[in-house]
Amino acid sequence: MATEGTHRFYRPSGRVEIARFVGCSALAVALALLLAAVMHVSFVNGQYFVFLLPLFLSILVAGIGKWTIVAGHCRSPLWGVALGLLLGSVMYLGYYHIGMVHESGVQYVHRLDLLPSYIEFRVTTDVMEDHSRPGAGSTGQNSGRQPDVFGWSRFWLEYSICLGFPVCFGFVRARRPYCERCGAWQTQRQAYFPEGIGPALVRFDSRAQPARSYGLV
User: Fold this and answer.
1) What is the C-alpha to C-alpha distance for residues 99 and 46, in angstroms, rounded to an integer?
2) Cα(197)–Cα(202) distance, rounded to whole angstroms?
3) With 60 as the cut, is the pLDDT of residue 119 above it?
4) What is the 3-state secondary structure (H, E, C) of the chain?
5) What local confidence, expressed as pLDDT, does residue 215 receive?
6) Is residue 1 one of the residues assigned to a domain?
7) How many domains does the chain have?
8) Domain for residue 105, yes or no?
9) What is the pTM of this model?
10) In 3D, which of 19, 9, 21 has the Cα closest to residue 170?
């Protein structure tokens, strides 16, 4: 808890429970890879909705990141942002990596050095089609090339979408109040009382103070 003038405000400690956080992060990365596989299957089956599918899945991966921060007791906004960047990148770049392995063979699963070239190939050859038209393709891929400006604009916009929600969720969640003494996230509760009951509550609270001091309330 930090103070500024006469006002007190909460400031996160920046601490992380390393063992819990690493374990939960490993599970979160595995789930992000599963969402990447969902994106690839959607693409292969012609059900990849540009911008909409990454948007929906980025919200899911943001929820996974939020759970990771809560379960890992992460009170560092910096680590929250880093986790969001990691999960968003694993999901979106993993989608292309799974596509590369699917087309080239399992023996290329470790060849991350080939991923940039494959992404460039996909960006310049993938086309959008209206599947309500008769005879529309099922893979969304074309042997011709599309304008690089459009392809790369779509790539970076979708990538930004996949990063945006997890990063924002991670930053905000890691800043939530945390009790360092009891090792738990703080919760907030609100109660509503009828108008005019304030003086009675003040009298009750003043009478309850001695009982609290002796642990009776």
Assistant:
1) 14
2) 9
3) yes
4) CEEECCEEECCCCCCCCHHHHHHHHHHHHHHHHHHHHHHHHHHHCCCCCCCHHHHHHHHHHHHHHHHHHHHCCCCCHHHHHHHHHHHHHHHHHHHHHHHHHHHHCHHHCCCHHHHHHHHHHHHHHECCCCCCCCCCCCCCECCCCCCHHHHHHHHHHHHHHHHHHHHHHHHHHHCCCEECCCCEECCCCCCCCCCCCHHHHHHHHHHHHHHHHCCCC
5) 44
6) no
7) 1
8) yes
9) 0.79
10) 21
Residue 4 lies in a domain: no
User: Which structural domain range is residue 97 located in?
Assistant: 10-129+139-213
Q: Tell me: pLDDT of 34 over 80.
A: yes
* Angle in degrees, CA 28, 31, 32, rounded to 5: 85
Q: What are the start-end ranges of the E strands in 52-140?
A: none
Return the higher-pLDDT residue of 125 and 6. 125
Three-class SS state of 183: coil
pLDDT digits (tens, 9 = 90+) for 63-113: 999 999 999 999 999 999 999 999 999 999 999 999 999 999 999 999 999
Q: How many CB atoms lie within 10 A of CB 61?
A: 27
Q: What percent of the chain has pLDDT over 90?
A: 62
Contact 116, 194 (CB under 8 A): no
Matching residue, tokens 């693409």 = 43
Domain-embedded: residue 50: yes
Q: Report the pLDDT value the prediction gives residue 132, as an integer from 0 to 100.
A: 57
DSSP secondary-structure letter at 8? Answer: E
Q: What pLDDT does 207 receive?
A: 62
Tokens of 115: 């991923």
